[in-house]
Sequence to fold (700 residues):
Amino acid sequence: MKSGKTMRSVKTASVVALVGALALAGCSSDDGDAGSGSGESSGSVDATIEFQTGLAVDDTEAQALKELAAQYEADHEGVTIDLVPAGEDYEANMKVRLAADDAPDIWNTHGWSVLRYGEFLLPLQDQPWADDVIPSLETTMVTADGEIFAMPTNIDISGIIYNADVLKDAGVDPAGIDSWDDFAAAADKVNSDTVSPVYIGGKPLSAAVADRVVSGTFNDNQLTEMTDGTFVSSAYQEMLDIIHSWGEAGYINPDYSSASRDDMAKALAQGQAAFEFGPSLLFDNALSFNPDVNLGFIPMPSNTGGPKYLVGGERTAFGVSKSSENTEVATDFVNFLAENVTDLAAASSSPPGLTTGTMDLGPIQPSFDEWVTEANTPVVPYFDRVYLPNGSWDAMQVTTDSVITEQASTADATEQMKTTFDNLYGQTK
Amino acid sequence: MTRISKPLVAVGLIVVCFVQLLPFYVAFTTSLKPKTDLSSQLLPPTEFYFGNFASALGDGNILRAIFNSIVVTGVSTLLVCVLGALAAYPLARRKTWVNKVVMVLILSMIMVPPLSILVPLYSMMSDFGAINTYWGIILVMVTTHLSLSVFLYAAFLRTIPTSLEEAARLDGANLFQVLFHVVFPLLKPVTATVIILTGIATWNEYALSSYILTKPDVQTIAPAIASFFSTQSSNLGAAAAAALLALAPVLIAYLFLQKWFMKGMVAGAEK
Fold:
């Protein structure tokens, strides 16, 4: 009987606690930061702006946006900025919304402001920040007609990412890697039971490797052929041959098939990876796991006799829907974000996307100074965004993965890529 | 049971319990470690870190998500039970060819994968102004689960002899009195099954909710937890903390309803 009474008390207490907590949550949801503003009002438009950030809810960039949105709301009475976070299926979500003609007022174009989202976005080239877009972004963010569809808050710039401590222990000087043969020699030196010379986060990230290496196997004439719609198989296969040779030499991480982007960052943070190929956000992610890790990047070797190069492009950029009922307010908010581009770039530890911003890259700053500022290394755009038709990314993943996992020869994988290229290019005509 | 088989059964049960509890243990250790703690998730934390729970409550707004899930699951399950039983009664009792065709059509709807109709469904919901609303997601949850409910109720109703209803009619009861005072009380076992199937599926639903509920104020638990992951970054610790917090109402519901859970599980398995 006693235990029955105790059980009832536990049940009652749990229900009271739960109902109380939920009631509080339900009642407090709309409080927001309404009372935190300065009270200054420079406008009286009633508008709610839906802003798909494309960022995780606790991401540092999302936190910076939250603060700026609160500041903007305080200065503009009647305006509400609804920041909508994203899950990993953000791209699929945006595709469904655009197909259903239900675009948010502002959204993150994550590298696709022109090719994928251009027809849905308001041209912003007349805005005050438009002339300040970083020159290396112009290839991919400015159309032939001079149109710009998104305001870049930062840029993605990287080459071969390395763990400086791992290389130092193995006696490798990253600055001395000028060719893929030098890279293989360095990989041989660092290869051990605990360190993978090249760490790739599974099939989804295999294309990120291919997309960076491939710019060094195409010469200018071949790139022109690609632009004109002729797939240059020899140059593409040369890239796959390089990646295949790493697999044969045992450079690639043994857990390749199950690894993820998070695993890449953890491996880099823990000194289990020497080199990685991927977006510059790998730096942020690795530093979030281990703030003391020494990281850097070097330019990519070229196989065509050209100079070494870095790969860069649009990372976080915000565009305004042309079907928005509040284009004026939405554009004004994007302009406000442009005025605060330094804060937004700092939140992502990336260089700002506008020349008006100042840079604070933290531990990556020395690499940036050495290769971008001092050596003036050429920055090439992402290969797929310029030379491959929209939709090629999946084929790039499949073909690179099939080569790494020995499911296809480099010749067969190249043929498969050529078929996809021809089909997709034909559809764009 | 022999002396030897008893310990074997006990060992088997312990292994099953271990396998069942392992994911919760991993979620628990992950939620109590900071992001910089890269030790194995199987190892307990050296010191308790509550930052992930703070993030789940603050950034993730998880209490609001639990409240939303209770509203959406409660209303959806109630409607699925009521509408399912009402629709199943004539289909089970009047065996006309029209009713047979209707039953086949309802059954065929079970076969439609929800994601295959995503774009037209989203377009329609958007035109209705139902995106990011309670009624919108409840409408979708009810329609996706109603066909199975109708099928289960109809199958159960066919096992109830019509003589019970005829006796009530002879005593002067009208159709609705027969339905609510005689038939529906007999549907308790199958109702428990429908509640469990619909309730659990709605509570855990992610595929459609992640498209229809994008704003934190209306998000249910699954999309709210998913908002800790993006293509740029992820926070496994905060997501694990949010998932653990979201367990509380389920545990409390189970504490009260375990008798019905068990009955619902075995409903139909006994005569």
